[in-house]
Prior knowledge:
Layout: E1 4-7, H1 9-17, H2 22-27, E2 30-34, H3 35-44, H4 49-53, E3 60-63, H5 69-72, H6 78-89, E4 93-96, H7 100-108, E5 112-114, H8 116-125, H9 133-141, H10 148-157
Parallel strand pairs: 1-2, 1-4, 2-3, 4-5
Amino acid sequence: MNSFVVSNTSPLILLFNLELEYILKMLFKRIVVPEQVYNEILLYTNKDRASFELPKCDWIEVIKVDIQKEILEWDLGLGESAVISYALKNNNSIILIDDRLGKKCAEVYNIKAIGTARLLLLAKENKIISEVRPLLEKIKEKGLWISNEILYLILKKAGEYN
């Protein structure tokens, strides 16, 4: 793809812990992670795979982000606020975010936002993975809540709805 992605915390944790981080590298030319997100992963993930592997990824660009005042008013988490603030100044970016309020904020500011489930669909469309369903099931087991409606839409689009 020609675009770049700015990732929030939960998608990175899910992708790393399921050993799927390579999807990012294959879909996007540039992967940006705000310092706030990077620090959340290193400090608060109970030293899981994400906290060990993220620092080794030289293909992920960790950047300093100043959170904009209008984004602070949304009362999002630090990572979500940093991701959206960065995207506001870099309008050709896509944000990777699972948080519902964060997605709503992005929509208000016309920022393209995708979640982990949509990322998996993109990976299938680009022939990086062969199936979405088993990965979505693993991601749901790891704690990502996906509504039945979104699950249906993703699986239908992936050609995996029975």
